[in-house]
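Quick one:
INPUT:
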């Protein structure tokens, strides 16, 4: 695509190396990995190799990797599967999550809420970061699961997963009914360590299309020995937690994408510098603009800003007309006119939450792109403020 793509939190382009590795399984090597013949075994070997690559990245056993159809599915399997294990025994259970989770977690918890499971939604601070002591306060005798995202998809804030993991491990030492810890690491995988032992998690979700891999394939790390029921029934595939014929090409692509992450660490540093240049430029050049979410505990590619007197949707459309792809929040909730639940949780008003713009950089973003975006955005905000009748005195830009 020509133009400037600043929506990498929604999805990333598939890398050439990933595509090249997938192609043989899309073109010729079509065997079902469960078949005994040579064609089937070629697929089985490819899937096994990918499982090993993911396991190396997460520092776990290959047998603890479950390939799924998406991160949404991984989140559902973890949350519904753990709940079902206890519900089938007639137990009353309690789950803790946060107010700023992705809909894949929030809506799944809501389903459980309607089925009689007690769900608590932990608050975040004004900076979008959870206070670990707030999680501790919410823990009850019948808490079976804590599900907290590693990094937020809208504002890029990074949660203290290691500290929450330590808290749960400490509490688990004193109780018979252990608490499981799940993290949705979809947005974190590109940038943060996802060593599951270091994080102290029992379940971890990730998705290939956020890491320059194909769409429609995810992973659920499932710690050995954890108690979980399948939510879909069928064959023996993926330890019976995700039955169905494996998507060999996608799984191969995911394995390659995850292995390539470490080779792009350098570009992450560059990305952070470019992000800071754009962020500082916006906050300095465009008056009455605010950064949403913590500046310190933030993914290196994320900017989420609000502009008084300029609607987020209008900004996205106007930028798109200039060939710049951005977003108002999560791709899954675009199309909905509801203000972002994440920004509301930070304490923003409905009007402020409507005026936000998310820009997420990627491996291909250049300094030239950043200069262009800053220039175009400054003009667009000014124009939209004029149209919306936003007070001239407040809107007067330094560039005027
Ligand atoms: N969780 C988070 C934090 C996300 O950002 C996303 C995608 O935006 C998902 C889950 C869902 O991922 P998938 O598209 O693989 O279902």
């Amino acid at each position: 695509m020509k133009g400037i793509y600043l929506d990498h939190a929604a999805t990333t382009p598939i890398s050439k190396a990933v595509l090249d590795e997938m192609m043989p399984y899309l073109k010729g090597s079509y065997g079902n990995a469960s078949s005994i013949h040579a064609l089937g075994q070629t697929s089985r070997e490819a899937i096994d190799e990918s499982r090993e690559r993911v396991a190396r990245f997460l520092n776990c056993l290959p047998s603890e990797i479950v390939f799924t159809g998406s991160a949404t599915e991984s989140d559902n399997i973890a949350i519904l599967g753990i709940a079902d294990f206890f519900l089938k025994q007639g137990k009353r259970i309690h789950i803790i999550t946060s107010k700023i989770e992705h809909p894949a977690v929030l809506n799944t918890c809501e389903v459980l809420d309607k089925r009689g499971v007690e769900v608590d939604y932990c608050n975040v601070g004004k900076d979008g970061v959870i206070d670990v002591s707030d999680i501790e306060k919410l823990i009850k005798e019948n808490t079976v699961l804590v599900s907290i995202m590693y990094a937020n998809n809208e504002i890029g804030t990074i949660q203290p997963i290691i500290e929450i993991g330590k808290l749960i491990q400490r509490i688990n030492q004193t109780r018979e009914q252990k608490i499981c810890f799940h993290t949705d690491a979809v947005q974190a995988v590109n940038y943060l360590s996802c060593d599951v032992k270091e994080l102290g998690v029992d379940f971890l979700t990730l998705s290939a299309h956020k890491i320059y891999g194909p769409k429609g394939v995810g992973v659920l790390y499932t710690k050995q020995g954890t108690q979980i029921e399948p939510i879909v029934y069928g064959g023996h595939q993926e330890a019976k937690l995700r039955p169905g014929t494996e998507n060999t090409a996608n799984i191969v692509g995911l394995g390659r994408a995850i292995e390539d992450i470490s080779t792009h660490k350098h570009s992450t540093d560059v990305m952070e510098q470019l992000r800071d240049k754009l962020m500082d430029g916006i906050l300095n050049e465009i008056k009455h603009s605010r950064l949403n979410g913590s500046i310190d505990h933030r993914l290196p590619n994320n900017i989420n800003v609000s502009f008084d007197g300029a609607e987020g949707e209008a900004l996205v459309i106007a930028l798109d007309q200039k060939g710049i792809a951005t977003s108002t929040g999560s791709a899954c909730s675009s199309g909905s006119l509801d203000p972002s639940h994440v920004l509301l949780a930070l304490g923003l008003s409905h009007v402020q939450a409507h005026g936000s713009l998310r820009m997420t950089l990627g491996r291909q973003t250049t300094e030239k792109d950043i200069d262009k975006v800053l220039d175009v955005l400054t003009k667009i905000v000014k124009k939209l403020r004029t149209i919306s009748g936003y007070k001239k005195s407040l809107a007067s830009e330094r560039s005027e």
